[in-house]
Amino acid sequence: MVIPAEIRKEYNRLGERRDLVHLKDFARWGFISSDDWTALCRRTADFIGVEDGDRLFEAGCGSGAFLAELAAYRTVSLAGVDFAENLVRIARSHLSGDFQVADITDLSSIGTASYDKVLSHGVFLYLDSEDAARRAVLEMTRITRPGGTVYIGIVNDPDRHAEYDYPPSGSFILTRSFWQNLADQEDLTLKLVDQESIFSKPSGYDCYSRIRYSLLLKKAPGSGP
Ligand SMILES: C[S@@+](CC[C@H](N)C(=O)[O-])C[C@H]1O[C@@H](n2cnc3c(N)ncnc32)[C@H](O)[C@@H]1O
To answer: Is the CB of 82 inside a 6 Å radius of any atom of ligand 1?
Structure first.
């Protein structure tokens, strides 16, 4: 069971560590090498279709590790929120952009239709209910411009979860049908892929890609804000 208050404490504790150097290590990506991290982020950027000039926002940006890699790959502007204030402080000190402390289920401080691409990388596995996931994705959709894209990355897949011996750190699971139903109700176009089609390694830490998926939700160009 996921307890968001505990997750927040855990990430805040990581934000206090003096021995960590790489931004990814504050966000529990310490088991993946720097080169693999760059490869993962760049392949994810290609999956999302990140382009020069994009205004990017990340829900659950942590220390900014994922956004930093996207900014090194493409000419983009950055913004994000995270509920772990110690990680937001690190993001602010390393990256230029607008970084705020907030829960991703309530983005009321962010204007409607403000961003081209609204992302969340490795965050939905820390939510505690379908209701929270629905609130978060509706908020992410609201702040995306018409014609823009919402990306939700690294979600636990119930169909494949039993294949793994160790439970991954974030344990919240969402069915694929949750996303199809949401896309149908909100008039969004869904593209959902197995995580290993974006990034996988035959050995070593690979973000448990064999038991996870990632997805895009696209807003129609003529849709309301
Ligand atoms: C694995 S880290 C990923 C950080 C960043 N997305 C990246 O890939 O570098 C997960 C992040 O999600 C944040 N998080 C989890 N649940 C959240 C929530 N409900 N609201 C805001 N942040 C949340 C945690 O504080 C943590 O920074």
So the answer is: yes
At residue 225 the predicted structure's pLDDT band, cuts being 50, 70 and 90, is: low
Contacts of 46 (CB under 8 A, 6+ apart): none
Report CA(100)–ligand 1 centroid distance (Å): 13
Give the C-alpha separation, 63 to 126, whole Å.
16
- Nearest atom (ligand 1) to Cα of 24: 9
pLDDT in tens, 153-181: 999 888 877 666 555 556 778 899 999 99
Ligand 1 centre to CA of 218 (Å) is: 22
How far, rounded to the nearest angstrom, does the alpha carbon of residue 42 sit from its chain's CA centroid?
A: 14
Residue 191 · residue 215 · CB < 8 Å: yes
Q: What domains, with CATH codes, occur in the chain?
A: 4-219 (3.40.50.150)
What H or E segment, with its residue span, contains residue 190? strand 188-194
Among 134, 151, 145, 110, CA closest to 186: 134
Q: Is 157 in the pocket of ligand 1 (CB under 6 A)?
A: no
- Nearest protein Cα to ligand 1, atom 13: 60
**Residue 125: closest CA among 161, 165, 154:** 154
Task: Judge if the beta carbon of residue 168 lies within 6 A of ligand 1.
Answer: no
